[in-house]
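Help wanted!
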Amino acid sequence: MGSSSYFDFSSVDWAEMGSATWETIWVTLVSVLFTAIIGCLIGLLLFETKDSKSNGIQVINWLVSLFVNVFRSIPYIILIVVLIPFTNTLVHTIVGPVAALPSLILSAAPFFGRIVEMSFREIDQGVLEAAEAMGASHWTIIFKVLLPESLPALVSGLTVTAISLVGYTAMAGAIGAGGLGALAYNNGFLQYNGTIILVATILIVLFVFVLQWIGDLLVKIIDKRVV
Amino acid sequence: MIEFKDVSKTFETKEGTVHAIKDVNLKIDSGKIYGIIGYSGAGKTTLIRMLNGLEKPTTGSVNINGVAINQLSAKDLRVQRHKIGMIFQHFNLLWSRTVKENVMFPLEIAGVAKAEREKKALELIDLVGLEGKEDMYPASLSGGQKQRVGVARALANDPEILLSDEATSALDPETTDEVLDLLLDIKKRLNITIVLITHEMHVIRKICDNVAVLDGGKIIEEGEVLNVFKNPQQPLTQRFVSAESDPSHQETEIVLDELLNKYPNSRIVRLTFHGDQAKLPIVSEMVHEFPKVDLNIVAGNIKQTQEGSIGTLYLQLTGPEPQVAGSVNFLKKLRVETEVIADGK
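Answered by r_m:
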């Protein structure tokens, strides 16, 4: 496979490339959505159960921590394999983009959960106390103080998570989940078509750039801490 | 009426039990500004936080208008807190909200309807002098303006009590006075009770009606501000008072030493005037009475408190002994607090 094979654009099936790109985009977006929701719940659980004096709550904190640490430490490629039975029960298939979702979410949500917990902990304790002094209930504090005050940190954390999810999506593609990763591997690498690898790579890089740009823009809009 | 009854508070730490508050008994009348002064670690933060239940006493009870705050259920305590505003040293505003939204926050918590919230917030923003800044974010405000937002926010639910937790300690002297004037103005207009804690006697002198001095978790002295300034009993109180009423104390000492070296036969007295005395021509009367006495003013100042003014004056008196002694007696007779600090003999 010489260097010229990277620029033979006539060998690219653009319709196929387009549908693979779309697959990568929606698989990433759907898993980002679920990761955001589940990650916020995990982060909130970790934050709220930390430093509790009650034994029961300490056990919850320990269990959630354990879950987070286990899923964060398993390499993604192994996680896919480990999760095959679970995926099968959940979505009734182990190939295709839908089958990639459970493993993608389960690997990204704990990671994002830690980011959420950290973001919550960075909020000034005094602000939480002020809300308490005003007679705010626990849930009011969560929805009106914790979430809005940590929103810029949550959005930039989610951007980082989304970008690593793009990488995972490509990896999942290589073992049958479709998308640009699958295309680059099956039609590019296995069939000695460098152009497809190049185009798929460029598209993934562009996608990552766009995600980062959207994330930065959102943070800029919502962050009111700087004049 | 706020009442602390035999209140003690202990914390369990790794180093053992810490007695933060020891047997505090305190009555605070409605409509007053009550100041609690002490160095950091004296327990004043713990004490003020008991008033809105952020801290619970280990023993004793904290009553506000007959309601024992420390015995309320979590839900009742939240309702009670709507009627207790609090301002903080570091303002504790939500940066993600505009000035108006910050002031509306306690109203949201209390479940006030949206239109009502807006109206009340705008009123309060006017009250604290922040017209035109409704839609700005805290990050673009100065420290004094942030504290004004804090004050407006604390007043949102028409509280009966306003707690001030070192509210001016992070501000420069000029802004401190601005915020203090605002608090005084608010007390007069809304007739609410203000309980404040501070480590600056200046704050106490400027706006408080009553003061309690807290040391090591105990109240060592308590009373009307003017009385405490006039006649501080405890060494710690004396230190607070002299640091405030006589900021140039050390300089004065140096000048006095020099004068004594130069005129070993002179006598130096310190006069302390209170209230109306400060307005009387006492010194000139003395001069008329004892024309042979030469008089040299070494140092002097006058300060305003809520109940009247307090002045100090250092005088050097020289002349024939009977005349000098007579003039000192004359001053004492006029009930000016006269202290002979150097006898010159």
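OP: Thanks! One thing I noticed: Residues 3-222 of chain A form a domain with the MetI-like fold fold (CATH 1.10.3720.10).
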